[in-house]
Amino acid sequence: MNSKLFVGNLSYSTTEEELRELFGQAGTIKAITIPMDRTTDRPRGFAFVEMESPAEAQKAITLCNGQMLGGRQINVNEARPPENRGGFGGGPGGGGRENSHGGGDRRGNRPQRRF
What does the alpha-carbon distance between residue 87 and residue 24 come to, in Å, rounded to a whole number? Predict the structure, then answer.
């Protein structure tokens, strides 16, 4: 088991201090990250809490999953590694930004291959 946890269904007003108080009951917290939305500059409604050890992370899941925080029932589980989105995102082929010839720029020049 990983020692990093995903905490979902957070209120936008949830603070790092509130998370420290709740998760501190399970052990030592190494780090807390509350991602912000780039356009609104508001929290995105989830956080990552990294515990000192996998055993403490498991204890935090047991203690905190389903608890009420900020008027919401939170979800706590092991964080998954980020997915490789590759290229520009938006689906196969780099998100449709390439021309129909499978790469290159708008003038139809093919990208150079590097070996």
Answer: 39
Cα atoms in the Cβ-side hemisphere of radius 13 Å centred on 24: 6
Q: Which two tokens stand for residue 111?
A: 């990208």
Question: Does residue 115 lie in a domain region?
Answer: no
Confidence of residue 84 (pLDDT cuts 50, 70, 90): confident
> Is the Cβ–Cβ distance between 74 and 10 less than 8 Å?
yes
Helix (H) or strand (E) holding 61: helix 54-64
CATH number at residue 63: 3.30.70.330
26 near 63, Cβ under 8 Å?
yes
Tally of structural domains, the chain: 1
Instruction: Give this prediction's pTM.
Output: 0.71
pLDDT band at 39 (very low <50, low <70, confident <90, very high): very high
Q: How many CA atoms lie within 13 A of 41 on its CB side?
A: 0
Cβ–Cβ < 8 Å for 20, 29:
yes
